[in-house]
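Forum > Structural Biology > Help requests

Title: Can anyone predict the 3D structure of ABC transporter permease subunit?

Hi all, first post here. I have the sequence for ABC transporter permease subunit but no way to get a structure on my laptop. I'd be grateful if someone could post the structure tokens.
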Amino acid sequence: MSKQVKQGIFGLLLVIPSFLLLCFIVIVPIILAINESFKNDNGEYTMEHYIYLFTDKVSTSNILFTLKLTLISVILVILIGYALAIYMRFSSGPIVRGIKRMYMIPMFIPGVIASYGIINMYGNHGWLARILMLFGSETFPKIIFDYKGIILANLWFNIPFTTMLLTSALSGIPNAIIESAKDIGASRLQIFFKFILPLSYRTTLVAMTFIFMGIIGGFTAPFLIGPNSPQVLGVSMRQIFSAYREPQLASANAVFMFVLCSIMGYFYIRTMIKDDKASAH
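Reply #1:
Sure, ran it for you. Structure tokens for ABC transporter permease subunit below:
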């Protein structure tokens, strides 16, 4: 047996445990969920659960609510994360040093604790409402048990990760490029759109993909902070499965969420492949 064949077998043996783990944890549950979503109570294959998913008023409102919440959260996270990354990359001083030391703290706080912290701070009887009452304010906007509270939680959970990715990408842009652009009279907007954004958009796309998948499948914050109706798909799926005892319909919800994430993943992979081909030529 040649050395090359031995190396191939050894590499295969190293890959097999990870592949089996992926099969039993990811692939097999997906196949089972897809199969169950097409079955009715009698075990017969039918499309009734998907028809219900897209025709029932409550179900469609949950879908639209989830998509709206996800898109708004992704846009806000990218804008704020990009602004923080640019500020830390091209500025200096004590404020920048303070931001660099503290912006990753939310990543190390468990979601349940952070959610209860948001409730205590922004609830109708929370700290912020009490402080405003001292200054004569008798009304406080509804944030908790509303979509605004979920967006606030999504910002808390995702801005640090996004800022970290974008800061790493911006650090790879040579200062010579920025200085050369300034020397020929380029404005700040021109520098951003012609140099900074093109050199960092791949990392931005990676961040958008992870944010989208994390938010659309989120459960903890929407369950604790979100409204009773409409609900995000993760909370709705849990209610359908545990309260209504309809595992087939819950599986249809799960498959739909998987399809949404797969579409986002497809566009990400397609863009990466096109860019790699373009750079190769």
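The chain has twelve helices and no strands. Residues 1-37 form one domain.
Shout if anything looks off.
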